[in-house]
Design brief:
About 40% of the residues lie in helices and about 15% in strands. The chain is α+β, with helices and mostly antiparallel strands. The protein is elongated. The termini are far apart.
Length: about 230
């Protein structure tokens, strides 16, 4: 699609709309599930559908690529919610959610985002997704799995040294009001792990950029609850 970077365009080609599924003989209908008027291609689903085009009357400003990326992703999520959960498609709500998430993303300090999101390659060109801590330092990685329907979550924390050797770990179950709250509980579990290992200093790493930004910025206004 014109106006979007190569990475975004490459991502869009991986989306399987009904048009592609139909031609692979995996679906009986190739029509758009939103308007039921034209075949559902990627362009139609995200841009040309009459219901989707109601989201387009916006001023993106200097953050065009970021906002459009979030808008396209939320259109796709709303489309899937309609197809699989029979939920009504609300263009205004979809656009509002996309703009809110984009603004939260743009609040993340640029240096923090680059350090966490940019892949690092070794001399052989192999991408490293986990970066070893410095010699003598322990890194604790935390993560959570959250079930929206039951609000239950599974938590895990793993401590590794500079050689990548696991020196400790913990897991737990709990409840949380959101996926970010679950990630916060996982970080709390990581602190318990650090205490059990008697660590005076350590690195903590999570895959929730918004949560890390919230914890790092005392002026943050993101609303989340770590426990209940």
């Amino acid at each position: 699609m014109k106006g979007l970077d190569a990475h975004t365009n490459k991502t869009l080609t991986a989306i399987f709309c009904d048009d592609q599924v139909f031609h692979r003989h995996l679906a009986a209908n190739l029509m758009c599930p939103l308007c039921d008027a034209e075949p559902e291609t990627i362009e139609h689903c995200l841009l040309l559908c009459p219901l989707v085009s109601q989201d387009d009357h916006c001023d993106f400003g200097a953050d065009f690529e970021t906002i459009v990326s979030f808008l396209l992703w939320n259109i796709w999520k709303a489309r899937c919610n309609l197809v699989f959960n029979k939920a009504a498609f609300d263009p205004v709500q979809t656009a509002s959610t996309a703009f809110r998430l984009a603004q939260e993303f743009l609040l993340i300090p640029q240096n923090l985002y680059k350090s966490l999101a940019s892949p690092i390659s070794n001399p052989d060109g192999v991408v490293q997704h986990w970066i070893n801590p410095k010699l003598g330092m322990i890194k604790i990685n935390t993560d959570a799995a959250w079930n929206k329907d039951s609000a239950e979550c599974g938590l895990a924390a793993v401590a590794q040294n500079s050689l990548g050797k696991i020196v400790g770990g913990m897991h737990n179950y709990g409840s949380a009001i959101s996926v970010m709250a679950a990630d916060a509980l996982a970080i709390k579990l990581g602190l318990s792990l650090a205490s059990s290992l008697s660590l005076s200093s350590f690195q903590s790493e999570s895959d929730s950029l918004v949560l890390i930004s919230t914890l790092s910025n005392p002026l943050s206004t993101v609303d989340w609850t770590a426990d209940r």
